[in-house]
From TrEMBL:
<feature type="domain" description="Luciferase-like">
    <location>
        <begin position="3"/>
        <end position="124"/>
    </location>
</feature>
<dbReference type="InterPro" id="IPR011251">
    <property type="entry name" value="Luciferase-like_dom"/>
</dbReference>
<dbReference type="GO" id="GO:0016705">
    <property type="term" value="F:oxidoreductase activity, acting on paired donors, with incorporation or reduction of molecular oxygen"/>
</dbReference>
<dbReference type="InterPro" id="IPR036661">
    <property type="entry name" value="Luciferase-like_sf"/>
</dbReference>
<dbReference type="Pfam" id="PF00296">
    <property type="entry name" value="Bac_luciferase"/>
</dbReference>
<protein>
    <recommendedName>
        <fullName>Luciferase-like domain-containing protein</fullName>
    </recommendedName>
</protein>
Length: 154
């Protein structure tokens, strides 16, 4: 994937990461992007895409979406999607994996992750996927409302 990121840096002006890299993998890939853009104009944006679900509490958020996202990412893995070093093995390990890749939690937790993405990685645009098969429309709408509340404070 690093070669694709370097190519995007050389021939484009922005690279949008998929949702698969962990936050630390994203840091390394952005380093590749920056190194390949050396001597070129700065990228006008620094976006990332992330799965996002904001519940009333951290525990309820994880409980609400763990099985849905687990099934989704197991399916991706079965198709050969390999844009991350992290592998989806079992449900217990997946919950820990969720914390390294996704914006899933209560408002405080998600706000902290968004601040970290902004302050540590320079992310200035987050494309949040808030709806997936198995998640109700009302849950997605509530996440959008909570995300708007967080964004207004960032």
């Amino acid at each position: 994937m690093a070669a694709a990121v370097r190519r995007a840096a050389r021939i484009g002006d922005v690279w949008v990461s998929s949702m698969n890299p962990s936050f630390e993998e994203l840091r390394a890939l952005l380093g590749e992007f920056d190194a390949a853009r050396d001597g070129l104009p700065p990228a006008p944006e620094r976006p990332t895409m992330r799965e996002c679900y904001i519940g009333q509490t951290l525990e309820s958020a994880v409980s609400d979406v763990r099985d849905i996202l687990y099934a989704k990412y197991r399916t991706y893995q079965s198709w050969g999607v390999a844009s991350s070093q992290s592998k989806v093995e079992d449900r217990a390990g997946f919950e820990a994996l969720m914390q390294t890749k996704f914006l899933v939690g209560d408002e405080r937790t998600v706000a902290e992750r968004l601040r970290w993405l902004r302050d540590e990685l320079g992310i200035d645009h987050v494309i949040a996927r808030v709806r997936w098969p198995g998640l109700s429309e009302e849950q997605a709408l509530e996440t959008m409302r909570r995300l708007a509340h967080i964004a207004a404070r960032l």
